[in-house]
Amino acid sequence: MRDYIETSGKGLRPALLLATCEAFGGNSENARVSAAVLELLHNAFLIHDDIEDQSDFRRGRECMHKRLGVPLAINTGDGMQSLALRLLRQNLGPLGPETGMRVVDEFDHLLQQSIEGQALELGWIRDNRLNVDASDYLRMCLKKTCWYSFIHPMRIGALIARPHDVASGALNLDDFNAFGFFLGAAFQIQDDVLNLVGSQDSYGKEIGGDIYEGKRTLMLGQLGLKAEEPEQARLAEMLSNPRDARSTQDVAWVLERMSHYGSIRYAQDAANDLLAAARNEFARVFAGTEDPPRAFLGQFMDYLVTRQV
Amino acid sequence: MRDYIETSGKGLRPALLLATCEAFGGNSENARVSAAVLELLHNAFLIHDDIEDQSDFRRGRECMHKRLGVPLAINTGDGMQSLALRLLRQNLGPLGPETGMRVVDEFDHLLQQSIEGQALELGWIRDNRLNVDASDYLRMCLKKTCWYSFIHPMRIGALIARPHDVASGALNLDDFNAFGFFLGAAFQIQDDVLNLVGSQDSYGKEIGGDIYEGKRTLMLGQLGLKAEEPEQARLAEMLSNPRDARSTQDVAWVLERMSHYGSIRYAQDAANDLLAAARNEFARVFAGTEDPPRAFLGQFMDYLVTRQV
Q1: Which residue of B has its CA nearest to A103?
Q2: Using an 8 Å Cβ cutoff, are A59 and A7 in contact?
Q3: Which cofactor does it need (chains A, B) (predicted)?
Q4: Which domains does chain B have, with CATH numbers?
Q5: How many CB atoms lie within 10 A of CB B106?
Q6: Is the CB of residue A134 less than 8 Å away from at least one CB of chain B?
Q7: How many CA atoms lie within 13 A of A186 on its CB side?
Q8: Is B76 exposed, middle or buried (CB count within 10 Å of its CB: 0-12, 13-18, 19+)?
Q9: For residue range A122-163, what is the model confidence (pLDDT) as tens digits?
Q10: Which ipTM value was assigned to this complex?
Q11: Which of A85, A104, A113 is most worth mutating to test chain B (most B CB atoms within 10 A of its CB)?
């Protein structure tokens, strides 16, 4: 269970949770266990997602199921989920039953949404859907990524900072929802773009891996809708094959068609629009909060969507 | 998520939990949510186990991952685990925070032990261990099966029946541990024997499937230790192949050697000894409890270890 944790990534989610807690005047010590639960669940999701997506690489090395086999990797993810439950339970003492239980409810919603989002995406792949439009994609992205990676980290951080304001209604946690959605969608689209145009050394996953996996990104969705009839047939045919039957030629062809139809440009524009909306929301939601953590969150936002790796 | 629940098996675990609650004078209505959590987790385990063990059949039809594919099946099991967390949280209201939290702790231990047991068994298969003796097997069986299927159902049932006696120490939940271990091990060995000698129609799984899966049963362990050198080499060779490379001839040979070395007889004797020990413990632990549910539990115990299907 230490395997993914010890080679952990950027720690975006705990950083967002802890910084939001401090921005709202809280002591981030009180949020440490919740941040750990989040990172533990994130890594558990990654282990299972890597199997579900048939990924090969993660953080610059082979995925767990490639090294230990699928059976032990599934079980390891389950083990991390059960340790997360234990940490949540330990939280109830220090936070007090009322706030502790609200944190449990945040995690409950987070889990349900993430799993539903994953079910949507896997269902599209299984059904070989080629008419995934921007609205479908954004709904999936909200469910699969935004709640657990962006919205709930901020909600939980603010809740732990100001439990009485949340209980009285003076602080409405739903205020974070739109901001987290805009930022999360911008981040995810950027991440999907990097998967197509980045370099494996710095990105840590195989380039074009999403095309091998048949992942319904905004780019693939746009291509599926824009492409001419014979190209659509070729795309559908290629994506109906098992993953191993997709060749580097197939992937190169998809990339070339994406370039032809401006799919990547389209996605980058969408990410920029979402980022602009996120900046507006950030200014509104974090107005009047404490400055060193608030400034950190501003830089954090810029980093997320301008990073090249 | 309804898929395995709606074709659910015998409901042994909820039955044991609810009957124990009533035997100890409780109202089984109060235990209903906990019984549902248990059945939900059991079915979530089965979905993941069937993938991990590369099983083909469950309850007379193809396993979920054979029908929906591995990705959606992993995600479905995760979804059921997260719904179990939600039910546990709902439990805290009706049971009160103190008893509700004790129930959470019971489930925490149950999850940890089951996942460790699964890790042990999968590790033996991965490492192609052939020196799994009775002590190794029983330890794995305690962890993987007995805690969640036998010991914790009784502990939780009794806890909900008599929360004050548990809090004061008048009722010690550890009293169920030995009984649940003996009964659970007898049940598991019997289940493993049926996998080798049962009929697929009534058993619902493929006959000899455990040998295809390389499962370290008491019989395979005994054969590995008893077999002559060249037979050991053949066994090791066969079990080092991927599952699909094991032929019906291989499986028939293993069954024949088990018969030669008395492996199945040995396991049946062990199950009978464990059952005798379980009967003693049952009489001791349930002495003075209420009779209709107590009589039911006695019959339940007989059914478990004498059933042919």
Answers
A1: B89
A2: yes
A3: Mg(2+)
A4: 10-306 (1.10.600.10)
A5: 22
A6: no
A7: 24
A8: buried
A9: 999 999 999 999 999 999 999 999 999 999 999 999 999 999
A10: 0.91
A11: A85
